[in-house]
Design a protein that fits this description.
four-stranded antiparallel β-sheet, mainly beta
């Protein structure tokens, strides 16, 4: 796929894949495109809408499997809610809004700080509530629920607090929503107990790397395993025991680690990479967790 204006930024999250429809969402500068096998590339947020506000896309994310919703976040702290089923109807009816390109937006939310939306993690399918947690460049995180409104869903801010001393780069929530891990630009990852609500969080452990921590992932088949990955000056994947805070093992790589994705069915983990060896660039590696050898 052609992707002009795709920002080369370690701290942005500009591509997302839908578990529900298999569509792909891409943020390109001030525009957002959705790609599907049926329609191809479809512009769902036009350039002028953000450009006239001196704003641009920093984060895009599809909701978990079973939902057709997705969210777009921006540099100046705006969040916009969309629904893939509504997009399909608009495309069929030929509806368009050349000037603002905002006709697809269902609801919007503006952060109090007006700081960049850096990362976003949805509450998983087991949660009785639909919503997500998003991080900001000033170290704050916010819990947003999506509630049914009179005509369409609406955002509701439930909780907001300072989580990191600097930018929040990565977020992961464990399988039963009892713990949250927050990776930061300050080279630390905070592990918090949120079993008694986000507002009553308890800091359990602080894990460290030698660079910003964007890659953070709880293991889906182990209740006490967390993986974290460091940036350019670190390049290490670390595995932590969330009950004791013990470093279990680690893998030294040749590149900055941009994301970590556990397999739900096998004892394997995928690492994706950014800046590193220019002569032999590597985009991703699949590791066997037990042996820590790439497959």
């Amino acid at each position: 796929l052609d992707a002009p204006c795709l920002r080369n930024d370690f701290y942005s999250n500009l591509i997302s894949w839908s578990h529900t429809t298999a569509n792909i969402l891409v943020g390109l500068g001030c525009s957002v495109y959705l790609w599907s096998t049926e329609i191809g590339a479809q512009q769902i947020l036009k350039h002028d809408f953000l450009n006239k506000r001196n704003d641009y896309v920093t984060c895009v994310s599809f909701a978990p499997k079973g939902s057709t919703k997705f969210v777009v976040g921006t540099k100046h702290g705006w969040l916009y809610l969309f629904d893939q089923t509504r997009l399909n109807k608009l495309a069929t009816n030929g509806t368009n809004d050349e000037e603002f390109g905002s006709i697809n937006i269902i609801d919007q939310f503006h952060s109090k700080s007006m700081k960049s939306v850096t990362c976003l993690e949805w509450l998983n399918e087991s949660s009785p509530r639909a919503g997500f947690i998003f991080g900001e460049e000033n170290g704050y995180i916010n819990l947003i629920l999506i509630q049914d409104g009179m005509l369409s869903p609406r955002f509701k801010l439930v909780s907001r607090f300072k989580a990191q001393s600097q930018q929040v780069c990565g977020i992961s929530i464990n399988y039963n929503h009892q713990q949250i891990a927050l990776g930061g630009y300050d080279i630390s990852c905070s592990l918090c107990d949120i079993s008694n609500h986000m507002s009553n969080r308890i800091l359990k452990f602080t894990f460290h790397h030698e660079a910003a921590i964007k890659a953070v992932a709880f293991c889906p088949w182990s209740k006490s395993l967390l993986a974290t990955g460091g940036g350019t000056k670190d390049k290490i994947i670390k595995f932590w025991h969330t009950g004791t805070g013990t470093l279990i093992n680690q893998i030294k790589t040749d590149n900055q680690i941009t994301s970590l994705i556990w397999s739900k069915h096998y004892k394997q983990i995928v690492a994706t990479f950014g800046f590193g060896d220019l002569k032999k660039p590597i985009l991703l590696i699949l590791y066997n967790y037990l042996s820590l050898i790439h497959i």
